[in-house]
Amino acid sequence: MDWHDYDAALFDLDGVLTPTAEVHMRAWRDLFTDYLTLRGITDRPYVESDYFDHIDGKPRYDGVRDFLASRDLTLPEGEPSDGSDADTVCGLGNRKNDFFAAALAAEGVEPYAGSVALLDHLATTGTKVAVVSSSRNAPAVLEAAGLADRFEVVVDGQVAAEAGLPGKPAPDTYLEGARRLGVEPGRAVVFEDAVSGVRAGHDGGFGLVVGVDRGAGTDALTDGGADRVVTDLAELVG
């Protein structure tokens, strides 16, 4: 593709730049497997497809809420300050974050080589770059992956909460990323591995939405709004 047709590239983080989506998946699995067991729910256990169907790409508390709804369960909303032992939506979300933080500290993270190759290429073209992630852990992940100094703009879950922006699949966080970069959405490319994320890019009117298939599937990403689907960002270098 000709990168001179675009002024900016906006990247989701987990599953696009770094393989931390796998760490998130394990954290969600451990959280809900424990939770369903404690509730005595054995006929509808947590399965891998639950991550893609109800959780992937969404703000943490939305993921908790949507998974619980899939099992006809409800909890009080609670507050973001709830302890991770609280039986609330926020409490469960904070418990999941404990699982994730422990795994990140123990295992670290290496960025995808193809994603680094694309970032290196974009640096030569003068293309502006930003990270737009639902995760509140984005700064820590970027630091651990050695990518923090590559991005002038990071719109993460904390920024979205402070600004009152709805999370993906709403386009607001991507539009905020484009605004902070000083570019029009139609002149920017969105990179996403989640159906909720490609839908956000599509609904935001971005010039190109690239789905990165790390497990969601080409058909699901295309149906969600991806203009093109790749398995590695190195395919877009040059």
From TrEMBL:
Its cofactor is Mg(2+). SUPFAM superfamilies: HAD-like (SSF56784). Belongs to the HAD-like hydrolase superfamily. CbbY/CbbZ/Gph/YieH family. It catalyses: beta-D-glucose 1-phosphate = beta-D-glucose 6-phosphate. The keyword Ribonucleoprotein does not apply. The keyword Magnesium applies. It comes from Microlunatus sagamiharensis. It comes from the Bacteria. This is Beta-phosphoglucomutase. Keywords: Carbohydrate metabolism, Hydrolase, Isomerase, Magnesium, Metal-binding, Phosphoprotein.
